[in-house]
Design goal:
Part of the Bam complex. Helices cover 5% and strands 42% of the residues. With 400 residues, the protein is mainly beta. The chain starts with 5 loop residues before the first helix and ends with a strand.
Length: 400
């Protein structure tokens, strides 16, 4: 029942809560205006911008590029897949699935691969999932096809390539271990059931020391054996209490951080939690509701709550360090850390830099007039930001 009705429920959830973005974009709470007299305290240089197809469009996916060995890879839900020089933005190769051939169906007017979640790259293998439940293995050097795998549901999170496996999560709650060479299914973990109503989208998987970690749609953090998918332990991050279905939403699939042997996870209507990775034992919990990923730098964890306020917490105790209200109701992305600054994008296409020490707004640049929903990506001294229509910008901090 759940899996057959998943598409309809996803559409209903998209209109009802839209991954906590669309209803907010209707300005039930107006975005906090940016100050007219703002003076930046750090200089930001825009290196380049380029476009990848139509981006995520109205799919609800949070497309995010990846950078490996100086090459940026990105995709779009209308079937575009590109590789660019990460410093200059120059396209190295570009492929479109709008032609007959290797995907097995489709024609020039109908894309036959609705890429979603962003690509993963390791060595010369690129893996990418689709809205119609496929995962494709592609040659990262030139975009040529290698293999394809058909799964049970749409793939909204980037796959994870680790050793000889491509690890994939699908919207119906399953985790797959696929052979990296052939795409053959090695194992599948099925959590049994997922809530009838949940936030659209999934956070990325995390693999370390032979264990796969992920958050679930029903408020848990789960650890699996990487070799066979057997569950090792789980911990509850949210209880899912409330008077209405919306209040009882408790998704914890925003993505997991690992620092040393400590895991950090969070949940909507739940907690920010630190957990001992080997044992699954909770270390501390701080009540905090979020739909976005986390970032960590030094002794601080950075997060954005469900009112779009940016917070910093002490990673050892969970106590709060600072909170920034300047971007409240601007529905900013999950944070990234670039040097001494926290970077987020917002619903009007702005990119913001906040000081890691006290949260003060330090700089603002506008990528486009379209919403930025995917967490920025920091590689070296460059941050990459993508909006919902596939515009990618690269920024570097400059000395004043």
């Amino acid at each position: 029942m759940k899996r057959h009705s998943l598409g309809l429920l996803a559409i209903m959830a998209t209109f009802a809560i839209a991954g906590c973005h669309s209803f907010k974009k209707e300005n039930i709470q107006p975005p906090t205006p940016l100050p007219d007299d703002f003076k930046p305290t750090v200089q930001v240089e825009k290196l380049w911008s380029n476009s990848v197809g139509e981006g995520a469009g109205d799919s609800g996916a949070r497309l995010r590029p990846t950078v490996v060995d100086g090459v940026l890879y990105a995709d779009s839900t209308d079937g575009k897949l590109v590789a660019m020089d990460a410093v200059s933005g120059k396209k190295l190769w570009s492929k479109s699935s709008k032609t007959h051939g290797w995907f097995g169906w489709g024609d020039k007017k109908r894309p036959d691969a609705f890429y979603a979640g962003g690509p993963a790259v390791s060595g010369d293998l690129l893996a990418v999932g689709t809205l119609d439940g496929h995962v494709y293995g592609i040659n990262a050097k030139d975009g040529s096809p290698r293999w394809d795998a058909t799964l049970n549901s749409e793939v909204l999170a980037s796959p994870l390539i680790n050793g000889g496996l491509v690890l994939v999560r699908t919207q119906d709650g399953r985790i797959y271990g696929l052979d990296a060479g052939t795409g053959e299914r090695r194992w599948v973990y099925d959590q049994g059931s997922v809530p009838l109503l949940s936030l659209r989208g999934n956070g990325a998987l995390l693999a370390a020391n032979g264990v796969v970690f992920f958050g679930t749609d029903d408020g848990k953090l789960v650890a699996l054996r990487e070799d066979n998918g057997e569950k090792l332990w789980e911990q509850k991050l949210s209880t899912g209490e409330g008077r209405t279905d919306i209040e009882r939403l408790n998704d914890a699939d925003n993505g997991i951080l690992l620092d040393g042997t400590t895991l950090y996870g969070s949940a909507y209507h739940g907690n920010l939690v630190a957990i001992d990775g080997p044992s699954g034992r909770p270390l501390w919990a701080h009540q905090f509701s979020t739909t976005d990923g986390l970032a960590i730098n030094g002794n601080a964890i950075f997060a954005v709550n469900d009112e779009s306020q940016v917070w910093a917490f002490d990673k050892n105790s969970g106590s709060d360090i600072w909170k920034n209200d300047a971007l409240k109701y601007r529905w900013v992305t999950g944070p990234a850390v670039q040097g001494n600054y926290v970077v987020v994008g917002d619903l009007e296409g702005y990119v913001h830099w906040l000081q890691t020490g006290d949260g003060a707004l330090a700089a603002t640049k506008r990528l486009s007039r379209k919403a930025i929903r995917a967490q920025p990506l920091v590689v070296g001294d460059i941050v990459y930001v993508e909006d919902v229509e596939g515009r990618i910008g690269a920024y570097r901090l400059s000395a004043r």
